[in-house]
Amino acid sequence: MALLEISNLTKTFGGLKAISGVTFSLAQGQIMSIIGPNGAGKTTLFNTLTGIYRPNKGAIVFNGKSLVGRRPDQIAASGIARTFQNIRLFPDMSVVENILVGMHVHFRQNPIQTLLRLPTFMREEAEAERKAVELMHYVGLNGVGNETAKNLPYGMQRRLEIARALAADPKLLLLDEPAAGMNPQESEEITKLFRNIRDQKGITILLIEHDMRVVMKISEHICVMDYGEKIAEGSPAEIRSNTRVIEAYLGRGAAEELHLETSA
Ligand SMILES: Nc1ncnc2c1ncn2[C@@H]1O[C@H](COP(=O)(O)OP(=O)(O)OP(=O)(O)O)[C@@H](O)[C@H]1O
Predict the structure, then answer these.
(1) What are the backbone angles phi and psi of residue 80, rounded to the nearest 5°?
(2) What is the dihedral sign for C-alpha 129, 130, 133, 135?
(3) Strand (E) positions, the chain?
(4) Which of 71, 121, 246, 251 has its CA 20 to 30 A from that of 109?
(5) Cβ(61)–Cβ(43) under 8 Å?
(6) Structural domains of the chain, with CATH
(7) What sequence ranges are listed for the domain ABC transporter (predicted)?
(8) Contacts (Cβ under 8 Å, ≥6 apart) of 63
């Protein structure tokens, strides 16, 4: 059964169709990318999926339940976590505190327990901190638990965002341009991290990415958007040789280069 099924999804802003009748599905455990030129509607798709926008038409079914009309916090609690195109951390909080924020969707304490610092609260807090430190190590951040988030180098802030998303224990992870601003070595390392997240934690991944080396290396399936419409979908090899995708987005030179690199 598909974990996520999107059918005939449409989102307009005034007269502009940012998403126009898009249909695709994502199987449990799959890594899928959404690519396409600037303004194609990729981020709007994420914002519609996570309840920031309500679609004008269409259905979004996650884990057998409709998400249309549900609030972002309800959607997060149902198992969808995301990172953003522009990193959104709590800049003045520590690394561990930022990860703890990601866990709040599952905290069970009520305000009385918290205020009185009852044993249940203390136990849950200690357990949450232990889990936060574990996740910090998992994403490759070591010895920086007490550092203020804003003082971390850019690549480490990206990893921290991923740790915070994982802290919510998601079934589906949405990554919006996770390799943006990274050098080739950093993007290669982060690609490995995504594969580990899927292989070791069984988390399904949907990513928007402009770095075609990352996309072609990691994706099992690719969906291509242009002017709000899905213009193609398929395996990396199918997408690299799709004439419409080459014309709308990849360009002939880039497609040939990618073909040579991946067949080398
Ligand atoms: N809140 C909004 N109000 C009005 N128009 C919007 C809004 N959000 C997005 N748009 C428009 O919808 C279209 C799709 O934008 P979107 O950001 O989803 O594209 P994208 O594929 O993510 O682009 P990029 O690769 O540059 O991030 C664009 O024309 C954009 O200007």
Answers:
(1) -115, 120
(2) negative
(3) 2-13, 16-27, 31-35, 57-62, 65-66, 80-83, 172-176, 204-208, 221-226, 229-234
(4) 71
(5) no
(6) 1-79+170-264 (3.40.50.300), 90-168 (no CATH)
(7) 4-252
(8) 3, 78, 79, 171
Q: How many CB atoms lie within 10 A of CB 235?
A: 12
Per residue in 179-235, pLDDT (tens digit) is 998 899 999 999 999 999 999 999 999 999 999 989 999 999 999 999 999 999 999
Q: Which amino acid is at 64?
A: G
Q: What number does the ligand 1 atom closest to the CA of 43 have?
A: 22
Q: CA 259 to CA 255: how far, in whole Å?
A: 6
Ligand 1 binding pocket (C-beta < 6 A) is 13, 16, 18, 36, 38-44
Per-residue pLDDT, 113? 59
What is the pTM (predicted TM-score) of this model?
A: 0.90
Hey, what are 80's tokens?
Answer: 């969808």
pLDDT band at 122 (very low <50, low <70, confident <90, very high): confident
Determine the distance separating the centroid of ligand 1 and the alpha carbon of 41, expressed in angstroms. Answer: 5
Among protein residues, the one with the nearest Cα to ligand 1's atom 12 is: 18
* Contact of 45 with 9, CB cutoff 8 Å: yes
- By residue count, the chain amounts to 264
Looking up tokens 């899927």 gives 198
